[in-house]
Design a protein that fits this description.
By secondary structure, the chain is mostly helical. 92% of the residues lie in helices and 0% in strands. It has one domain: Helix Hairpins (Orthogonal Bundle). It has helices at 2-33, 37-62, 66-105. The longest helix is centred in the C-terminal third of the chain and has 40 residues, at 66-105.
């Protein structure tokens, strides 16, 4: 039974790396094409989540637990970046609403 686990893990890691790279390519495509700011923010957030997964998977493949610390730090920074982008988008939307409301009042 242990021999089977030893031969399956490298295959599973290789398949997971390939799937993560495909997901990253699709996320970059969405980031480039848009069409709106929220689409780009979600794509950027997805890229950071995939980078965390990539780092964790590399920690398994290299049998080096230090990469898990990198994954945790990247996840924390990505969360803060997502919150900052969301606040930016919210302020931008509020400015648009205030700008159009002022134009409607003028004859």
């Amino acid at each position: 039974m242990m021999e089977t686990a030893g031969t399956i893990l490298p295959w599973a890691v290789d398949i997971a790396f390939a799937l993560l790279l495909a997901a990253m390519a699709l996320a970059v495509l969405r980031l480039a094409r848009g069409p709106s700011l929220p689409d780009r923010v979600v794509a950027l957030d997805l890229l950071t989540v995939l980078a965390v997964a990539f780092s964790a998977l590399f920690a398994i493949a290299a049998e080096e637990p230090a990469f898990l610390d990198v994954a945790i730090a990247l996840a924390l920074v990505a969360f803060l970046a997502t919150v900052a982008f969301a606040r930016f988008a919210e302020r931008r939307q509020a400015q648009r609403e205030n700008g159009t409301a002022g134009r409607e009042d003028t004859p």
